[in-house]
Amino acid sequence: MACVVACKRENDVPEEHYRTRVVEIVEGKFPKLRMELRPELCNHCENAPCVYNCPTGASYKRKDGIVMVDKKKCVGCKACMAACPYDARFIDPRNGAAHKCTLGEHRIIDGKDPACVTTCISGARIFGDFNDPQSPVSRILAERHVRTLIPEAGTKPTIYYIGLELLT
Amino acid sequence: MKEISIIGINEITYPHLDIWNWTIALYLYLGGMVAGLMILGAISQLRSSPITEKATDRPVSCYMAPILSPILLSIGMLFIFLDLTRKLNSFWFYLNFNIMSPMSWGAWGVGIIIPVSALWAISSLPGSYLDKLKRWKFIPYLYNKLVPYRDKLARLNCGLGIFLGIYTGVLLSSFVARPLWNSAILPILFLNSGLSTGAALLIIIAKDRMEKVFFTKADIALIATEIVIIILFYYAHLTSTSPHVESIAPFFTKGYYFPFWITVFLLGIFLPMALVLDVARVKGFSVLGLEKLRIHLSACLVLIGGLVTRLAFVYVGQLSSLSDIVKR
Predict the structure, then answer these.
(1) How many A/B residue pairs have CB atoms within 8 Å?
(2) Over chain B, what is the mean pLDDT?
(3) Residue A18's closest chain B neighbor by CA?
(4) Residue B76 placed within a domain
């Protein structure tokens, strides 16, 4: 769970709130059990319901696909929270604005990976540019079977999972 | 056996447990009621005798519905304002219009409806009210200017009332992430419920016997329609995908929300209808004594039922999700 801690530390996430979480699921009957660990975060959807439901334009999508919140425009109406199928947002109790994963945008400007990716000891989290065919994420997408969370919501997430079996 | 544990999430970080609370339910309730008042008030006004300068014998609904509409809607706006966590930023609602955002439509819509219904209210003022408001000189001035357009304002407000009633449902139904709300039937249900509560309020404030009977008959038809719409709403969910089926489970299983459901159906729908059903068939119905009490009790129960409906839908809807980890 180093990613959860690293994200909180790097992004000054308020107490008792998290931008990312790790879902642990155990299924079956002893001794035939299966376990899956799945990190979850904002899916930075192509068709982001949080963006098109925002009445003030505070939630927006950058050209590189990262979904962001402009705190100055946020009124705290919570429409984005109600609209998100991934429950990836919360209200920052310090300022009342919607808060969410930014994919460590202040780090990627400097060419670094997000803190959750850098700190992951098993390399389970991979970050990269889908527009670059030579990037690790593009190669994995081409070579491995991947899937997204709740595809039926029609949000077209840009967070992909390898070997996802137990949950949708 | 399926065991789920989540690291990095707790009750506070479960947004579906803490998105909207009773303030939003009250906003939707008052919005629906005002929609009903605007539609029924306009119909009542257009049905009544031609415009006279300071008519005092007009039905109460002809002037009370227009007067109450901007007042109740402003109170509703106050409740949604209380829910905002960055209240000082509210002006951003009016510096942006997002065509895909129902809340944006609502902010602009209500911002237009309040002044338009206020103009209709001024044009509908009876003489006795006008005399009391003489100290504010702009009111008699506006009254004289607006009286010739009273019927046109009534028609406009009727249209805006339909928009408002439907909007209170669309605000919830547009969220694909919340299966209970995500139904095209919900706006129709909320519009009908708004008309029903509007009629109930007019039954209580009406003085004339015929007026009370007219709105009681209207309310019986609206309650009957509501029963059909509610059955269709649950049928649509029951025959849809698994998240939709699971989203209605709290209404039919014993638990915290079960009493809400019983309250809505028995106290808010069936009982008020049973209390006044004979009004629909008895021509010479008296509204004195016990009959009057029955009509008023029925109207009060409809008002309570409408509120419980909004509370139940707002809270239960937030329990529903497309994700497995938040289902219970």
Answers:
(1) 156
(2) 86
(3) B8
(4) yes
At residue B287 the predicted structure's pLDDT band, cuts being 50, 70 and 90, is low
- Matching residue, tokens 């699921």: A25
Evaluate if residue B281 carries a pLDDT over 70: no
Count how many domains chain B has.
1
Residue window 181-240, chain B: list those with CB within 8 Å of chain A.
none
* Within-domain flag for B59: yes
| Residue B89 to residue A76, Cβ atoms within 8 A | yes
| Tens-place pLDDT, residues B161-181 | 999 999 999 999 999 999 999
Chain A residues near residue B244 by CB distance under 8 angstroms:
none
In a domain, B10, yes or no: no
* Residue A77 at interface with chain B, using a CB cutoff of 8 Å: yes
Pick from A73-77, B53-57, B195-199: least confident:
B53-57
Nearest CB to A4: which of B7, B177, B178? B7
ipTM of the complex: 0.89
CATH of the domain at B131: 1.20.1630.10
CB contact under 8 A, A73 and B14: no
Preferred mutation among A1, A7, A75, A95 to probe B, highest tally of B CBs within 10 A:
A75
Is residue B7 assigned to a domain?
A: no
Residue A168: how many CB atoms within 10 A of its CB?
15
Query: Domains of chain A (ranges plus CATH)?
Result: 2-162 (3.30.70.20)
Full DSSP string of B7-28? ET--TTT-GGGSS--HHHHHHH
* Tally of CB atoms within 10 A around B5: 11
Give the rounded percent of residues in chain A with a pLDDT score beyond 70: 98
Angle at A78 between CA A74 and CA A81, to 5 degrees: 115
Window 27-56 of B: residues touching A by CB (8 A cutoff) are none
Name the residue range of residue B142's domain: 15-326
Determine how many CB atoms are found less than 10 A away from the CB of residue A84: 28
Facing residue for B324 by CB, picked from A96, A97, A167: A167
Of A17, A82, A167, the CB nearest to B325: A167
The H or E element spanning position B293 is helix B289-319
d(CA B19, CA A12): 22
